[in-house]
User: Which sequence fits this backbone?
């Protein structure tokens, strides 16, 4: 039953109906449980009592020196058969809030936050982010953070997107007219989540859009985003002129019933802005933006997503679907960065943010695109000002145009910087950007590259505790604990494989040198000797001045030599 | 004959003597001529007359629409047998300056510049950089740029390093005790130059250091740098305590005679600074720095490279070898960034810069390392202030520690930013950093990644003409000229391979869509239609305001539909 009521029980009925077939015919029959990361154990931090109990997963990395290091974990329960889907972690919390006499019809976390409630989702997030539940609530109430959590996606492990929290990353998956199967897409979902995607967008445009999404939502521990206009377009046979607000609302409800957590909606592509793109180098590059532009021009009417925005809001709040207000006029080339078309649309997104907030609906704002480094900061400053600090969610941006095949890198440069300046979530770009559909390897490369960008931003922002992992890894590196260096890395497998290429012997993993310098010639080894020496001389040396230190230390010469400063012993 | 006279004729004799064997026993016998890039033609811009004639190579990319695009080219003459080595492009220029009665014994480009001379090398560079020869001369005279050009490396195509020129990149190669042959290293040299390395450092530490270097220099169209202390250490059996200034000077002369263009010299690792590293997370990570630290501690004496710096200067200026003053105390982890040890050494490098400049010797300053984004700018500002704008040459910096296997990316983030802030040359980092020896693929990945960072910096600096290539590629992309998009890319092969993966048919290279969206669903295609439409309506639309545009355009509705706004035609 497709209604805008967002009835949770009804949805459960729907979900059973649409649960895909099990067994050897299942699209995901060949997918086993996904393997975990090395030397890692899933642990849970528990808090609260009764139905409010939250169990927050962490990945505990065991080091060879007996120490452990816990990291934020998005990988979901281990050993889950994708034919069954994930357990419904949040079901009891949602049911409790939707009990008769309690439910107001607005189920958004922002609505609860503004009424002073701290939901179990907020407490879960507080533990993940190491802040107080009150802080989480206040940031959501203020609109500066969102907690995407559709009432029909109880499988999510709650997470938060906002500039006062860890920078998050999104991975895009989805089939297209050209290819890929449901099994491949579910595999990409789990694969991207394994490597650290904080949310995943299903951008399918080919066959079986509904069924593909069902498999994805039921197997996703992270929020799922979509661009509903893509499915609308399929429904009208690919002709944007036939799109209507009724069809759009119907599609929103269909997807909200399945449990999609945020919708990209290109309501800012106003009719008057379209001519502003005519002299661009690359026109309109957003798919959603160009579909709406085509509709506007054909009908010579204002964008129906803009004129009917309040109707859309009615759907969003009933399911707690968050807005991701799309930047349909984002620049597709360096030449088009920060132009009038882009910033005109941003003004409208600011206006729409206020409308959504009036309904207590969570909102984030999408951003570019292709932007040279010197124009990145302006994007964040304008967005914060115009959209009153609603979380910014950017695609890169790509800092140059001339490296197709490497746009994960061109965009990681922009992403790290824009994250530092205040962007809350970074949408990944894979090596296949502009060229083809990302395969499994591309998805992993994209995710790891964006974990790098997000972490660089967290470090630059001085986010509390962000540097702890760098310190642990660097300590392991300095102490030649090779396995620990690998296991603390964002991608332990690749680090180990690269080391194996030059020094494959297992014994080399305990070597007190690395292949770059070889056994006779290791700067790290020398430094350890320097440190040992200096430790003994600390008081004298610290006081010594550049001009008299030679004299001050001369007396100690023979002592040091007796202590045996042999440096180039091979490690064993 | 190893003397400090740097006699050019004598050097020619040396070179003949040390020219390696040809034929099937040659270490490079298996290397053929390196293949060029697709759709590219080597063209030369000629200027000047007589022995002062300069022929500056460019790579001309031919596009399918008949247009061409010329790019800065470092790839050397085509089709050269590495058994023979490159032609001696600069020999006549050098000979002319070294004629009796003209030669003063100081052969540095800075010396000539300060005397008001514009050398052919400077004119060559002016054409490459599209500036005036006078500007080149003045920047060199001022010390704000260097033109590394050993009189015994006449094969170089002159290039310049300075913050008012294009940002340059360096690739490190070299064998180690663990492995690799001369043939592999010469191959890596040519490979890195093919992909755009502006200079190459030979960091060999294993067997055959001298012979490897000879092969590299004779086949390199770009300046070659070394770290002479590595060879010194080999000469004393790996015991740093046995190093002496006499051995060091002898080694400098040996390498200068071969034609090395710049030397990394760790003269700033002063005795008094060593204790400052004792409490670091990763101590001293520079090989050269740690060798000198060990020597200082063992002898309880000041660094002999510091105390004998003027003796070193005497060698440098006779051959025009440039200083690359090493940052032996650079941070090896985020925790150690911008600490007292690092900046104490920088102060000394500033002092040494003044001494070198007193001798008219060209100088650049090496920089970190591991630095979070928020601490990068301070590095450049301090370096410019302390070293009076001598070119800065940094290794990355790596913006995080936790991604071994991806440190080309972690460092490209820092490199792009530090380049924007004023760093003149970026030393590449490969995916094998911290883990193993880079192979051929790693070298290419490192070079392309750093071309990206350098270009991002050029764009952000607003370097004149830097954006032209982005504009050309984006135009090709927008017009579905796939081959042109590939050929204008930094790595045409990878771009084409990635496209082939999804759409292998040759016809797809003319397709008016891409695999990401498929034939029915292409935003670029829609935009072209929008543009066509808007072009007709330009006057009306430009004047239209957000509130009345609907009315203004309404009259044109049927006209547009008659014009046939069919969007989703497949390209053919």
Assistant:
């Amino acid at each position: 039953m497709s209604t805008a009521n967002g009835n949770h029980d009804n949805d459960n009925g729907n979900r059973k109906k649409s649960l895909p077939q099990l067994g050897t015919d299942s699209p995901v029959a060949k997918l086993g449980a996904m393997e975990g990361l090395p030397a890692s154990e899933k642990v849970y931090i528990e808090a609260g009592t009764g139905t409010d109990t939250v169990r927050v997963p962490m990945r505990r990395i065991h080091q060879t020196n007996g120490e452990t290091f816990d990291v934020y974990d998005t990988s979901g329960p281990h050993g889950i058969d994708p034919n069954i889907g994930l357990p419904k972690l949040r079901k009891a919390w949602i049911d409790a809030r939707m009990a008769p006499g309690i439910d107001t019809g607005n189920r958004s976390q922002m609505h609860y936050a503004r009424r002073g409630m701290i939901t179990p989702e907020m407490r879960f997030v507080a533990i993940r982010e190491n802040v107080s539940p009150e802080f989480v609530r206040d940031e959501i109430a203020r609109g500066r953070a969102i907690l995407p959590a559709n009432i029909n996606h109880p499988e999510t492990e709650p997470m938060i997107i906002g500039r006062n929290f860890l920078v998050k990353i999104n991975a895009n998956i989805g089939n297209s007219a050209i290819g890929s199967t449901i099994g491949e897409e579910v595999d990409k979902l789990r694969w991207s989540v394994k490597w650290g995607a904080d949310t995943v967008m299903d951008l399918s445009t080919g066959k079986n859009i509904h069924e593909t999404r069902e498999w994805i939502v039921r197997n996703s521990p992270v929020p799922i985003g979509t661009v509903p206009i893509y499915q609308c377009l399929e429904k009208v046979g690919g002709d944007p002129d036939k799109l209507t607000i009724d069809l759009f609302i119907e599609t929103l409800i269909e997807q909200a019933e399945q449990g999609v957590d945020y919708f990209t909606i290109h309501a800012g592509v106003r009719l008057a802005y379209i001519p502003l793109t005519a002299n661009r180098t690359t026109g309109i590059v957003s798919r959603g933006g160009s579909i709406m532009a085509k509709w506007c021009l054909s009908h010579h009417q204002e964008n129906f997503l803009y004129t009917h925005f309040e109707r859309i809001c009615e759907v969003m709040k009933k399911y707690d679907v968050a807005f991701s207000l799309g930047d349909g006029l984002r620049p597709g080339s360096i030449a088009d960065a920060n132009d009038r078309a882009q910033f005109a649309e941003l003004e409208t997104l600011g206006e729409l943010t206020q409308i959504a907030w009036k309904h207590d609906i969570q909102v984030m704002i999408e951003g570019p695109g292709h932007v040279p480094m010197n124009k990145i900061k302006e994007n964040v400053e304008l967005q914060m000002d115009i959209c009153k600090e609603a979380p910014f969610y950017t695609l890169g941006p790509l800092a140059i145009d001339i490296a197709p095949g490497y746009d994960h890198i061109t965009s990681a440069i922009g992403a790290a910087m824009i994250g530092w300046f205040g962007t809350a979530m970074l949408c990944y770009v894979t090596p296949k950007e502009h060229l083809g559909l990302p395969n499994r390897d591309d998805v992993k490369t994209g995710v790891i590259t964006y974990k790098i960008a997000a972490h660089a931003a967290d470090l630059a922002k001085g986010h509390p505790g962000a540097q702890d992992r760098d310190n642990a890894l660097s300590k392991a590196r300095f102490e030649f604990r090779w396995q620990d260096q690998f296991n603390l890395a964002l991608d332990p497998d690749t680090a180990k494989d690269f080391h194996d290429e030059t020094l494959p012997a297992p014994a080399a993993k305990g070597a007190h040198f690395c292949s770059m310098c070889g056994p006779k010639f290791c700067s790290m080894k020398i430094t350890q000797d320097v440190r040992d020496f200096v430790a003994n001389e600390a008081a004298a040396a610290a006081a010594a001045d550049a001009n008299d230190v030679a004299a001050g230390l001369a007396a100690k010469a023979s002592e040091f030599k007796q202590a045996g400063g042999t440096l180039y012993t091979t490690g064993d």
